[in-house]
Write a structure and sequence with these properties.
It is built from six helices and nine strands, in the order ααβαβαββαβαββββ. It has helices at 2-5, 9-23, 39-42, 58-61, 100-112, 127-133, and strands at residues 29-33, 50-55, 69-72, 84-89, 114-122, 139-143, 146-155, 160-168, 174-179. Strand 1, helix 3 (39-42) and strand 2 form a beta-alpha-beta unit.
Length: 180
């Protein structure tokens, strides 16, 4: 887990590419789930030819180059009728699904969109990571003119980790987000 935290997008891309090589399933159609702004894909495009990028946030997808196939959808409700040979989801995206039935639905959606010899790979942040890092993630600072205040709390009973972000943009606008 510590190793993964320090990996660059280029190193993540090599890791995903190595998984593809290991399984050697002749993948031609790829799906990146929770693609964010598409930074990982830009490091994979020379290796993976036909990538569909999916994210629930239209704001994030707006930062992805327009030449890419982009879909705004919930990863637990995939809108595809076709199948993919290689599906990947990185940066602990599965951790945002906090309901057990929704996790089951997610895997069911993956299965119905994966070709017969298809490969699905994902990573997850586990409870020990939340216990260890909750205090460290209480921090304030400034990044490129934006002030931030992050508060982090891990509830051991509910097994939920919440990060609350308050951002103050350089124009004075305040934005608040809670990630669970």
């Amino acid at each position: 887990d510590h190793i993964m935290q320090r990996l660059s997008y280029q190193e993540w891309a090599k890791y995903i590419s190595d998984i593809k090589t290991f399984y050697n399933n002749g993948a031609k159609k790829y799906l990146e789930i929770a693609c964010g702004t598409g930074k990982l894909k830009s490091n994979l495009e020379r290796i993976f030819e036909d990538i569909v990028m999916l994210d629930i946030s239209i704001s994030m997808l707006k930062h992805v180059d327009l030449v890419n196939k982009r879909i705004c959808a919930d990863m637990t409700r995939l809108p595809f009728k076709n199948e993919f040979d290689f599906i990947y989801s990185t940066f602990d995206s599965i951790n945002y699904i906090t309901d057990e039935e929704e996790v089951q639905r997610y895997f069911s959606e993956i299965r119905s969109n994966l070709s017969t010899e298809g490969v699905f790979t994902f990573d997850a942040s586990l409870e020990n990571n939340s216990i260890k890092n909750a205090k460290r993630l209480n921090r304030k600072g400034v990044v490129r003119g934006t002030k931030y205040d992050q508060s982090s709390l891990y509830d051991k009973e509910l097994k939920l980790h919440r990060n609350r972000f308050i951002l103050e943009l350089d124009n004075g606008e305040i934005i608040e987000e809670v990630h669970t």
